[in-house]
Design a protein that fits this description.
seven-stranded mixed β-sheet; elongated; 3 domains; Methyltransferase, Cobalt-precorrin-4 Transmethylase, Domain 2; Cobalt-precorrin-4 Transmethylase, domain 1; alpha/beta
Length: 396
């Protein structure tokens, strides 16, 4: 028999009011579940013999407690299918039967308090999640972004994050205790003002204004360089060709080995914000350079790894779908030997060769792993020596 869940949405109202249909569902139920805050809100409405199961991490333990029961009534915030527990149940128990009584989610409520149309709003959850979703929306230039917060990703922390990476064209609306008649607060702020304030939980945020959009191809002169040595970075036309050959549109993870100024990592991040980018650089100055340049060009979320790539613990990282070798310290074959086994079938490896010898060494190294040599383009920029940009594709 399929397990059945009744999901009831709540806002922050201290004394929730339900329709007759929802009240009848509560009166007929025996087993209830929700967060501890939800329990405090509805405790007085539950039958005397009710069983309550707290929703806490790890969720495996929660679902194990659900197993003996044919039906569980779950209280959740707002709409249970909007970044909510309903989606979690559907993912873990795809055959379960769901009956849902949603309330307005907090971002809908905030938009209504602001009389702000929200059909064009991009929604992001930072509740127990990293910055990636918000970073992607910022890089894509979304003009209106609704953000669900938590105790780490507070409105102040979000405002500071935007200021650090140059997304200064936004204003911030914050809703606190939405639905609670006694405690609800809604206000709008400039980012620098929001970054200095403390906000009460629960809260949510809407960012709106003029988005920042990076140009296609950042001028080389705009980057901070390694000890002022502009010749050490991958030039813009070569950079764009390199990113093109990496074919990141379908990738999940990209490694930039020998990142130096971070120019390839930043260009890839700005063109394909959905991709997780890891930059490796042996020189200790690389971390500062990447931080300065990523903030200058609005490219948050690039993960830096310092030290010798060949001595690093790559197995602890997400496996790459594409790899660029921008530096190898004379150990090109060893780098290829290390990364090719980590690539999936069809994974791309791109190398910029400065000499016939390094080009031959790369071809020999990838062919030894059964890779197919793909596109190969020789290009010269200004008075610099010609570079051969070459792609290899892993083939099982």
């Amino acid at each position: 028999m399929k397990q059945r869940f009744v999901l009831i949405g709540l806002n922050d109202e201290a004394a929730p009011h339900f329709s007759e249909e929802v009240s009848a569902a509560i009166a007929a139920a025996k087993v209830f579940s929700g967060g501890r805050r939800h329990h405090e809100l509805v405790r007085h409405l539950l039958p005397a013999d009710a069983v309550w199961i707290d929703i806490t991490v790890p969720l495996d333990a929660v679902f194990a407690q659900y197993e003996p029961y044919d039906e569980v009534t779950v209280f959740a915030s707002g709409d249970p299918l909007f970044f909510g527990f309903g989606a979690t149940i559907r993912r873990r128990l795809p055959d379960a039967e769901l009956r849902i009584f949603p309330a307005m989610n907090s971002l809908q409520m905030l938009a209504h308090r602001l009389t702000m149309p929200y059909d064009d709003m991009t929604t992001v959850s930072l509740t127990g999640r990293p910055w990636q979703g918000l970073d992607c929306a910022l890089i894509e230039g979304r003009a209106k972004i609704g953000v669900l917060t938590d105790r780490e990703h507070t409105p102040a922390a979000i405002a500071e994050h935007l200021l650090i990476y140059g997304y200064t064209g936004y204003r911030m609306a914050v809703g606190e205790h939405l639905g609670n008649r006694d405690a609800e607060q809604v206000a709008e702020f400039a980012l620098d003002e929001a970054a200095r304030r403390t906000f009460e939980m629960p809260n949510c945020v809407i960012l709106y204004g003029e988005p920042h959009r990076a140009p296609l191809g950042i001028p080389d002169s705009a980057f901070d360089h390694l000890d002022g040595r502009a010749g050490m970075m991958t030039k813009m036309p070569i950079r764009l060709l390199t990113v093109s050959l990496l074919q990141l549109q379908s990738a999940r993870c990209f490694w930039d080995i020998g990142s130096c100024t971070g120019s390839v990592s930043i260009e890839a991040r700005l063109r394909f914000p959905h991709v997780e980018v890891h930059a490796f650089e042996i020189r200790h100055e690389g971390e500062r350079l990447l931080q300065v340049n990523a903030r200058r060009f609005g490219a948050p979320g690039i993960v830096f790894h310092g030290g010798d790539f060949l001595a690093s613990d790559c197995m602890a990282l997400p496996a790459p779908d594409a790899v660029f070798i921008g530096g190898h310290g004379g150990r090109l074959a060893e780098v290829v030997d290390r990364v090719v086994p980590l690539l999936p079938d069809g994974g791309r490896l791109v190398f910029n060769s400065v000499s016939p010898e390094s080009l031959q060494a790369f071809v020999q190294a990838v062919e030894a792993h059964g890779c197919l040599v793909g596109a190969e383009t020789r290009i010269a920029v200004d008075n610099y020596h010609p570079i051969t940009v070459i792609q290899a594709i892993k083939h099982s």
